[in-house]
């Protein structure tokens, strides 16, 4: 019986622990590093609006679906999907959804760890006073020099991966839960402090209007795909990370309320990051479309100028690294849980093996910023003309694999699972249930499909 199923990996100690862990997974480099630079590359306001729209009508219902499937299955996403398919009398290959998620998590972590390594190195650079009184040009050239060295990038990537393996190896309650308890609130407070700095630049309004006044002439089908992909990426959806966290969730927790809280917190952090970064961009005559280096070229200017900048800057990068850690652990948790369940491995071995494979894969991203900067493997396709290995990994995972995973999750939860099962698991008011069902049956899958078809030029 479903009621009695328990997870062999343990359970969150309470509802708050789940909210913190899932928020820890959601809030990460996606919010602070990626959101500002893709918003900058895609013209700001209109892009941000589409992203917010995707969070509300696709992200939240799919998050509820993922948590629900996870809690019902109580195993790694692969086994959860296999079990639920059997229980709901659906074809066994639904477990492929779990496999695709494991692959996406592995590919994402391979580059995520490299970027987190940048943040880690910036902890020491900021603490060492490297940015004291530096100009915008100075900060940009420090960044350019840093990423041109494969050795440094590799070293920081290695340190980040090892630390991730250690946390994951320690398990649900000892490792994951403790790691996120205090960090998320601190990160939030520090972002607010930085917003106050951004107000003093005299360009706060320019930043706000870049972020919030939509100019739809800047929107292309690709930009819509990127905004939607980012809604999945930032909420950690479509690959089983939230599903596996849901599998450790106590039965009496409201899935709807927690999902809304998590998505709300995640969105707030991204918007705050944007409100910090764009005023600095405009105050210093920088380019909003500067790409993946954007935060590393802007925030250090602020830390170099403000009172107590060394302290605040160092703390900020420390918290960013922790935010990245709490996301990284969720990226490999589905794979670790599966190895423990099916191969009888202990968590330590499972984490080490996956960590090593991810580390090797990460070398492709390390080189994308230096030795392989001109290596564009898919340049024969117009859309990938300028894409490095890193760009391709990012595009494939965030814009294709996650939305596709989300689409299948929505179809399974909305159409293939018996209403009795989903209603029992979601345990929400009948109005809440029918709203969710409508979104997950029609709106989310159709929206994802339209965006895909739009990009390949069907309309
Ligand atoms: N949501 C994380 C971020 O915004 O940084 C990244 C991420 C974590 C994506 C876990 C996907 C995932 F499963």
Brief description of this entry?
With 459 residues, the chain is mainly alpha-helical. The protein has one domain: Up-down Bundle (Amino acid/polyamine transporter I).
Structure, explained:
With 459 residues, the chain is an all-alpha fold. It has one domain: Up-down Bundle (Amino acid/polyamine transporter I). The chain contains 19 helices and no strands. The mean pLDDT is 94. The structure holds 4-fluoro-L-phenylalanine (PFF). 4-fluoro-L-phenylalanine binds next to α1, α2, α5, α11 and α15.
Percent range of helical residues: over 70%
Distance between the termini: 47 Å
The biggest sheet amounts to: none
Tell me, briefly, the overall form: globular
In the predicted model, the low-confidence regions spanning at least 5 consecutive residues are: none
**Unique bound compounds:** 4-fluoro-L-phenylalanine
Features:
459 residues; mainly alpha; Amino acid/polyamine transporter I; 19 helices; 75% helix; 0% strand; globular; binds 4-fluoro-L-phenylalanine
Topology:
Elements: H1 15-26, H2 29-41, H3 45-73, H4 77-87, H5 96-127, H6 136-147, H7 150-169, H8 172-180, H9 183-200, H10 204-212, H11 221-234, H12 241-246, H13 255-283, H14 294-305, H15 309-343, H16 347-368, H17 389-416, H18 419-426, H19 430-455
Helix pairs in contact: 1-13, 1-15, 2-11, 2-13, 3-4, 3-10, 3-11, 3-13, 3-17, 3-19, 4-5, 5-7, 5-15, 5-16, 5-17, 6-14, 7-8, 7-15, 7-16, 9-13, 9-15, 10-13, 11-17, 11-19, 13-14, 14-15, 15-16, 16-17, 17-19
Bound molecules: 4-fluoro-L-phenylalanine.
């Amino acid at each position: 019986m479903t009621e009695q199923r328990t997870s062999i990996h343990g359970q969150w100690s309470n509802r708050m622990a789940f909210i913190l862990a899932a928020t820890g997974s959601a809030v990460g480099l996606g919010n602070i590093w990626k959101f500002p630079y893709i918003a900058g590359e895609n013209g700001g306001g209109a892009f941000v609006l589409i992203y917010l729209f995707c969070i509300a009508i696709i992200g939240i219902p799919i998050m509820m679906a993922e948590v629900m499937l996870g809690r019902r299955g109580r195993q790694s996403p692969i086994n959860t999907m296999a079990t639920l398919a059997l229980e709901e009398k659906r074809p066994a290959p639904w477990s492929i959804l779990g496999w695709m998620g494991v692959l996406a998590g592995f590919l994402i972590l391979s580059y995520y760890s490299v970027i987190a390594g940048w943040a880690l190195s910036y902890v020491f650079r900021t603490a060492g006073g490297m940015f004291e009184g530096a100009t915008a040009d100075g900060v940009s050239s420090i960044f350019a020099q840093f990423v041109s060295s494969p050795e440094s990038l590799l070293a920081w990537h290695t340190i980040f991966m090892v630390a991730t393996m250690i946390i994951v190896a320690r398990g649900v309650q000892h490792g994951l839960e403790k790691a996120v308890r205090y960090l998320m609130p601190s990160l939030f407070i520090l972002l607010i402090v930085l917003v106050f700095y951004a107000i003093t630049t005299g360009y706060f309004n320019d930043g706000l209007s870049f972020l919030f006044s939509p100019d739809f002439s800047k929107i292309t089908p690709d930009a819509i795909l990127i905004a939607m992909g980012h809604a999945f990426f930032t909420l950690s959806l479509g690959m089983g990370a939230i599903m596996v966290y849901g599998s450790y969730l106590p039965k009496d927790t409201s899935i709807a309320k927690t999902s809304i809280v998590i998505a709300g917190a995640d969105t707030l952090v991204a918007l705050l990051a944007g409100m910090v970064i764009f005023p600095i961009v405009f105050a210093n005559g920088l380019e909003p479309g500067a790409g993946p280096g954007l935060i590393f070229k802007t925030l250090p200017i602020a830390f170099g100028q403000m009172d107590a900048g060394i302290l605040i800057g160092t703390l900020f990068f420390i918290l960013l690294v922790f935010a990245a850690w709490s996301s990284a652990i969720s990226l490999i948790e589905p794979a670790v849980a599966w190895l423990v369940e099916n191969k009888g491995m202990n968590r330590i071995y499972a984490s080490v093996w996956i960590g090593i494979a991810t580390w090797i894969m990460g070398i492709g991203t390390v080189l994308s910023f230096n030795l392989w900067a001109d290596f564009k493997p898919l340049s024969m396709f117009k859309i990938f003309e300028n894409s490095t290995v890193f760009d391709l990994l990012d595009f494939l995972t965030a814009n294709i694999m996650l939305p596709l995973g989300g689409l299948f999750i929505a179809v399974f939860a909305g159409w293939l699972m018996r209403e009795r099962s989903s209603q029992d698991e979601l345990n929400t008011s009948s109005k809440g249930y029918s709203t969710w069902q409508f979104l997950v049956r029609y709106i989310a899958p159709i929206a994802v499909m339209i965006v895909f078809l739009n990009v390949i030029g069907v309309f």
